[in-house]
Design a protein that fits this description.
Elements (H helix, E strand, L loop, with lengths): L4 E3 L1 H16 L6 H24 L5 E6 L4 E2 L4 E9 L5 E7 L12 E5 L4 E8 L5 E5 L2 E6 L5 E7 L3 E6 L2 H12 L20 E6 L11 H7 L3 E5 L6 E7 L7 E2 L2 E2 H18 L3 E7 L3 E5 L7 H10 L10 H10 L6 E5 L5 H17 L1 E7 L2 H7 L6 H26 L3 E5 L4 H14 L4
Length: 441
């Protein structure tokens, strides 16, 4: 009993008032009987409240409803349900023991719970790292209207919930990408610029269709314009290759560049499967990590998800010769390769540019470079001092150098995605759809 009994702030406030009355009674003797009387009343109320909060063995039942897995960087809903088993009303304070990775130390809520009432509380958590998250007990503190004491009741057993790459984002982007009309911002609906070799059907001509596809024989028979419709090329190999070296450890909005790349790789792999192509995955740094050959079977997305879940950043620099070896030995046939990496200086790019050119000779290479949004925001500020002007000039020079790196890659026919980290998923999917529409893959 003593371990679950807690004294409230109201109890100590009442105790302080009584102490002041007793102190004043030394100078004002008529206050002494008043102080004694109030002390007796306070003690009686204190004991009565202890009785009312402890007279039921199990006054509350409760549970925590969590998803089977949490999505990285998304708002995940968690529901608390608490039931009053008694015919007595309580004042209720609930403290949920959240995982330390969430860095939330003051989560609680207050409520009044009536006899035999069910109350629910919905809140969200946003995990910023992958891994196993340990939820502790659900601590409920009950008291009466006096609120002198509280009884702690522990509900909901501790549980472990894994945090996987963002499945919520993956589903949202699937909805945006596969919608027949581009009613949602972000995803671009691109008209196919060329023909594949797979004929699908003859359909009625609509404004905007390629007039080169008009089927004149069918049009003459129907006395209206008919057009040949072709399917997109299918079963193309699309590889997401993630650099997990130290250059990808930079955090933006709580997520590292590598986690942005991981979320994007999962979302893009899902779109690739929906487009009847074959997604694959390779991770590397100073050594090769996960290797999942491109395939289009039902278990492919689950394999990619599990591989991405277990990836960790490494402190060493990336070995691009190893990347070249992997693309030659592990990837059969010409494929589209999206390389998620980052270069912070022209020197770093020039050092690996010959290797990237070799990869681009055998495959269609797309290099993803990130805009440093913090430097970008700093460069847009108005300088107040000479020192601020110097720093702003340095920031603008850094941003200009990044743009030069993009131009340098394009000089050698290497496709690029130059994006803010938070826009990576949208831009990567748009790039894939663009290259597919142009018939480059």
């Amino acid at each position: 009993m003593m371990k679950s009994l807690y004294l409230s702030n109201r109890f100590f406030l009442a105790l302080g008032v009584l102490a002041v009355l007793f102190a004043l009674s030394f100078a004002l003797s008529f206050l002494f009987p008043v102080a004694v009387g109030l002390s007796v009343i306070a003690l009686a109320l204190f004991l009565a409240e202890i009785y009312f909060v402890y007279r039921h063995k199990n006054p509350l039942d409760g549970r925590r409803s969590t998803p089977n897995l949490l999505s990285l960087s998304d708002k995940n809903k968690i529901r608390l349900t608490i039931h009053n088993n008694t015919n007595q009303a309580f004042k209720l304070e609930v403290i949920d023991e959240l995982p330390p990775e969430l860095d939330v130390r003051d989560f609680s809520f207050h409520s009044d719970i009536k006899p035999q009432e069910n109350i629910q509380h919905l809140y969200t958590v946003t995990p910023l790292t992958r891994g196993k998250y340990h939820f502790g007990h659900l601590n409920c503190f009950i008291s009466t209207l006096l609120h002198f004491v509280q009884r702690r009741i522990q509900l909901a057993q501790p549980e472990i919930v894994p945090v996987y790459p963002s499945i919520i984002q993956m589903k949202e982007l699937e909805l945006k990408t596969l919608a027949s009309i581009a009613i949602m911002p972000g995803i671009k609906k691109l008209r196919r610029l060329g023909h594949s070799y797979e004929f699908e059907q003859i359909k009625h001509y609509q404004r905007g269709d390629d007039i080169r596809s008009i089927n004149w024989k069918a049009s003459s028979r129907r006395n209206e314009l008919m057009i040949n419709q072709y399917e997109d090329e299918r079963s193309q190999q699309i590889y997401c290759i993630i650099d997990k070296s130290r250059v990808m450890r930079m955090p933006f909005r709580g997520l590292t560049l590598m986690d942005y790349a991981i979320n994007t790789s999962l979302a893009l792999s899902n779109i690739i499967l929906k487009k009847n192509d074959k997604p694959g995955l390779i991770t590397f740094s100073d050594k090769l990590g996960s290797i999942i050959p491109a395939a289009a079977h039902n278990r492919q997305l689950q394999k990619i998800l599990n591989a991405l879940y277990g990836e960790k950043e490494r402190e060493l620099e990336a070995n691009y010769e190893l990347l070249h070896y992997a693309t030659r030995r592990l990837i059969n046939g010409r494929s589209l390769i999206l390389l998620f990496t980052n270069f912070e200086s022209s020197f770093a790019l020039e050092r690996v540019l010959p290797t990237l050119r070799k990869v681009n000779q055998n495959h269609l290479l797309v290099v993803v470079l990130f805009i440093n949004t913090e430097i970008e925001a700093f460069a847009k500020q108005s300088p107040q001092t000479t020192e601020d002007l110097y720093r702003q000039t340095t920031a603008e020079k850094f941003l200009f150098e990044k743009k030069r790196m993009v131009h340098r890659l394009r000089q050698y026919g290497i496709q690029t995605i130059f994006t803010r980290p938070e826009d990576l998923s949208i831009n990567a999917i748009n790039k894939y759809l663009e290259l597919k529409a142009k018939g480059m893959i």
